[in-house]
Write a structure and sequence with these properties.
The protein has 240 residues and is mainly alpha-helical. It is built from eleven helices and two strands. It has a two-stranded antiparallel ribbon.
Length: 240
């Protein structure tokens, strides 16, 4: 009995060659949790300052010190600007402040030891102003109220300085300091003192660092539907 070549070369059809049914099943959506690429970066704790370990009084003093130094720096910039605007040497006012300690030798125009001494005295007095202000105003005050109290406090200090302190301890500065220029500096300093309540509250309300974790991202993947029962049995018969 002869075997036909067609029977010898016949190969069972593969799954790819089987025609798909007319009605395909919808794809199934499966949600899988995927680990983030950099888990450390995702769960890094918030960078917060440690809790204030001192008392409320010490926090008030620290906030007053910070506010006073900021006011001193702002008024220093004001003096330099006013000197430039009026055509004087930039360091004239700061050098004049140094005459409180250096006397006539500090009343120069160039930048030097007199300038450094003058800036140091000005910042020291500004810090003292801020500390005294922190004893008078509560940290619970509103910034607008604190700014108004700061203006009154600053102008009271301006009057006390030019009426009583300078004539006795700094006569050179008393005779040569422009009153309007110094009034503007005290106005600016009084406004900056309005920042004191916010600084005090920020010191007292600093929480401890707490780790913040983010949820893992969810990736949706498509899974091919299973073949119908009739189609699977047909494929099995062909393979057999």
């Amino acid at each position: 009995m002869s075997v036909l070549p067609a029977e010898i070369d016949a190969v069972p059809p593969s799954e790819e060659s089987v025609p798909a049914p007319e009605t395909a099943l919808p794809a199934i959506i499966v949600s899988e949790a995927v680990e983030p690429e950099d888990k450390f970066e995702e769960s890094r704790p918030v960078a917060l300052a440690p809790e204030w370990i001192g008392s409320m009084f010490s926090a008030r003093l620290m906030a007053g010190l910070q506010t006073g130094v900021i006011a001193g720096l702002m008024t220093t910039a004001w003096f330099i600007f006013e000197a430039w605007r009026t055509g004087r040497p930039l360091w004239a006012v700061l050098n004049m402040i140094s005459t409180v300690i250096l006397g006539r030798s500090g009343y120069v125009y160039a930048f030097g030891i007199a300038t450094i001494v003058g800036i140091s005295i000005h910042l020291l007095v500004s810090a003292l102003y801020g500390i005294i202000f922190s004893m008078l105003v509560s940290p619970r005050a509103r910034p607008f109220f604190a700014a108004n109290i700061g203006l009154l406090y600053s102008f009271a200090g301006f009057a006390f300085t030019f009426i009583w302190i300078l004539p006795r301890f700094a006569p050179i500065m008393f005779r040569n300091a422009p009153r309007l220029e110094w009034a503007g500096a005290h106005f600016l300093g009084g406004m900056v003192l309005g920042l004191y309540p916010d600084m005090a509250r920020s010191l007292l309300r600093r929480p401890l660092p707490v780790a913040v974790t983010t949820p893992e991202p969810v990736v949706e993947t498509e899974v091919a539907p299973a073949a119908p029962d009739g189609l699977g049995s047909a494929i099995g018969d062909v393979r057999s």
